Amino acid sequence: MTKENVQGASEEEPQGQSKKGLKKQQKEAEKAAKKAEKQAKLADQQEADEDDFAKDRYGVCPMVQSQQKLDRALVRVQDLTPEKAEQQIWVRARIHTSRAKGKQCFLVLRHQQFTVQALIAVGDHASKQMVKFAANLTKESIIDVEAVVKKVDQKIESCSQQDVELHVERIFVISQSEPRLPLQLEDAVRPEGDGDEEGRATVNQDTRLDNRVIDLRTTTSQAIFRLQSGVCQLFRDTLINKGFVEIQTPKIISAASEGGANVFTVSYFKTSAYLAQSPQLYKQMCICADFDKVFCVGPVFRAEDSNTHRHLTEFVGLDIEMAFNYHYHEVVDYITDTMVQIFKGLHDRFQTEIQTVNKQYPSEPFKFLEPTLRLEYKEGLAMLKAAGVEMGDEDDLSTPNEKLLGRLVKEKYDTDFYVLDKYPLAVRPFYTMPDPNNPKYSNSYDMFMRGEEILSGAQRVHDAQLLTERAMHHGIDLEKIKAYIDSFRYGAPPHAGGGIGLERVTMLYLGLHNIRQTSMFPRDPKRLTP
Amino acid sequence: MALRELSSLEKCLGLKKPNKYGTQGERKVPVLQNNNGAPLVGLVTIASHLVHEAKKTVLLGNSAEERAVVQQWLEYRIARVDNCPKDELKVILKELNHYLEDKVYIAGNVFTLADILMYYGIHRIVVELAIQEKERYLNVTRWFDHIQHYPGVRHHLPPVVVLRNRVYPSGHH
Question: What ranges does the record give for the region Disordered, renumbered to this chain (chain A) (predicted)?
Fold first, then answer.
């Protein structure tokens, strides 16, 4: 309004105005003309909207509050195959990408790691307005579409369903996404290094984790966590078949099980308690209670302030404990066989997922031997010494040496999975059984995948007196572990076991480089959210 | 350091009577006081003199071209390898690795003084390398292992373990 007023005023001015004034006047006139045109267009459109024949075929659905039970079958995107050609179906999916071109709009619809192309074209089933509506939908919105499945002549390379496309007849928004996404899914699945060459964006880890919900939608994340679920299931299935019992243990405990330094303290009414570093003491007590073979899947807490690629403060522990007859190698064999069953199961059942992850993070296929390779700690040290590493006989393996030994073993035996047996007693927890032949060593073992530790285990001391001695040697307050020691006084079978980190197994099986990639909502010293 | 190197070189050349050396300046440049004539100053100068004294001038190269190459690498040793700042070690290893790709010895197919002095000079660097790095500079390691086992060369220096087979997948960084 004000602009028009100004214009009016200038018109009234007498002649002889400056060039500048003239120009200004012209500009104002142009502006006014444009405005009028726009208004006319808008009016046109309103008119057109009124006689939009397809206006019942699209729109935003009212919020689903379970008002009605629709008798409508929704077909999953992964089931859209040429067998369904010419069928009229309903699909619920996200809008992965959309591209409008004149009277047509192409959408890529995504459900989990599967995508399909959908086409809305002006014609019998869709009006101009409907195409426009579809083109304006924001990425990641969830929609319901009714469409006819059509075979395509040329494969659609960019989608997982390459042989068909959907000809959309109705389209309704179930949940609308905000127009701006904190990260683009295409950027998040780009292989490392590719972005640099083409000058394209990659998403760094912290951005991913800050927006984990969106990052988890990427094909890579979908594949990782499906495979991880597979690890858990294979672990359970294998052990149940071997006659194990699944147990649940408390995570709030009164005393640290392995060294006091790295436990979280929680206030517990008038006293304090700890978060369990492992279900160690409880699974052993179950052995004393005649459960023979037990396992436990649950959270484990470590208060280590280490910000490395492979440490989390909370992770999922897969723990095994088992009574044996005469030699703890009986247990080692059980555990390694379980691991081998897991590797085989993953290889047989999760090839699609492995390939998907490999596209973004290439790695060599995981190799293992049957039976599993078992080396003694001394042999391991000898291999390291032969490679020029200087370390003492009773030193613990440092991370670089651990990795190097993994490479040496891979080179010599061609396996990514092996057991290192007979660790020095000094570097193991108090409940570890000393080696009868050499008191400096112990009946303990670690298992490694791609040169990194995934399992730590040992034969445990099942004699109350020796256990007391060992606890005192480690300076542990006997009062606090009284219940634990007492459980061995009334007849305790010899037993051994070990604990595996689920995230590490997934990470190392897939050859990934950071454990945060295989933890859905990772916890580390610097991250408590999301 | 340079003095121990010269005494090792003497033994390596088969000189029976050890010379006496002094040093001069802040950088401890070695000085050899000859019985007759002016004192000789500098590692390469003294080393070349010892080679003459031992009547093993083949170690300085057979042809004019070879002699030039030997001089070139002796200079490289003094100018680049010695007193090299830590962050430039990688550059030296990379250059040398590239150069040695198609050579047994520094001057090509014959063992020369350049091999001996380069070995002495680079030893402190190679000793510090992790296995993965030794594998990355594969040609340097191969040449180094060959020289440290060359009869009479090693003397005061500890042997460095070198793996004969690749442990890390190729192309992996």
Answer: 1-49
pLDDT tens per residue, range A73-130: 999 999 999 999 999 999 999 999 999 988 999 999 999 989 999 999 998 889 999 9
Distance from the Cα of residue A263 to its chain's centroid? 25
Q: Which member of A190, A212, A311, A523 is catalytic? A: A311
Q: Angle B43-53/B2-13 helices, nearest 10 degrees?
A: 20
- Look up the CATH number of the domain holding residue B114: 1.20.1050.10
Q: Which homologous superfamily is A58-175 in?
A: Nucleic acid-binding proteins (2.40.50.140)
H-helix segments, chain B: 2-13, 43-53, 64-76, 89-99, 113-128, 131-136, 138-148
Report which secondary-structure segment, H or E, holds A192: none
Q: What rounded mean pLDDT belongs to chain A?
A: 90
Whether the pLDDT of residue B77 is over 60: the answer is: yes
Whether residues A388 and B131 touch (CB distance < 8 A) is answered with yes
Total number of domains constituting chain B: 1
Residue among B163, B166, B169 whose CB faces A387 most closely: B163
Side-chain half-sphere exposure of B165, counting CA atoms within 13 A = 8
Let me know if residue B157 belongs to a domain: no
Give the domain extent around B28: 2-148
CA A253 vs CA A257, A278, A318, B40: distances in Å: 9, 10, 18, 77
State the burial class of residue B71 (Cβ atoms within 10 Å of its Cβ: 0-12, 13-18, 19+). Answer: middle
- CB proximity under 8 Å: A 354-393 to B: 364, 386-388
Residue given tokens 């050609």 in the structure block: A85
A4 in B contact zone (CB under 8 Å): no
Whole-model pTM? 0.82
Whether residue B173 lies inside any domain: the answer is no
Q: Angle at the Cα of A254 (from A249 to A256), degrees rounded to 5? A: 85
pLDDT one-digit tens code per residue, A250-268 = 999 887 765 556 899 999 9
CATH of segment(s) A221-517: 3.30.930.10
Q: Does A483 touch chain B (CB under 8 A)?
A: no
Residue A47 is among the residues annotated as catalytic for this protein? no
Q: Does this complex have an ipTM over 0.85?
A: no
Query: Rounded CA gap, B57 and B55, in Å?
Result: 6
